[in-house]
Amino acid sequence: MKxxxxxxxxxxxxxxxxxxxxxxxDKVEVVSLADINCxxxxxxTAQTLEGNAMIKAKYVFEHFHLDCFSDDTGLEIEALDGEPxxxxxxxxxxxxxxxxxxKKVLDKLKGISNRKxxxxxxxxxxxxxQEYSFDGIIKGEITTEQSGTxxxxxxxxxxxxxxxxxxxxxxxxxxxxxxHRALALQKLNDFIKTYNQFYL
Length: 200
Prior knowledge:
Mean pLDDT: 91
Helix content: 25-40%
Strand content: 15-25%
Strand order of the largest sheet: 2-1-3-4-5-6
Distance between the termini: 10 Å
């Protein structure tokens, strides 16, 4: 019987871990940073989502010598020239305050009719010393006010295309089927299926 290889997800976010494990469980055993006793505050100093995702993956690989993947996500708003983008988590300051971030977005969009936006997730994978990346994009629009109490981050003000509801108004199961992160994770899952040296 073939053993599953462990794959470190460079996060301790319980929502991200649950989603990743649900999608990848048949292929790998997904473990968190805490599971490998990594409690370091890994810096995210790149100017792109791709760069930040790879920084975190490389940190785990170089310090713990384990196969790993990491993600970085940004909200990109057309009328704001792609802001907040790579600065999404700290758009209103280093506190990573979601309420303040949403308020800043809504204030900047006051009086602007173009509300087009997209969420984009980039996953960086390092396995057997080789680097790969996958992305997931979902298009939608920014609402004029917050709506819904589920989810996290910008979910209460982002309504995906062809939906009447914001991410924060959707059950987690529904959001996780269409979200940017789910799409990127599915690409990772498809890659693992074809990675013929993956199993021990």
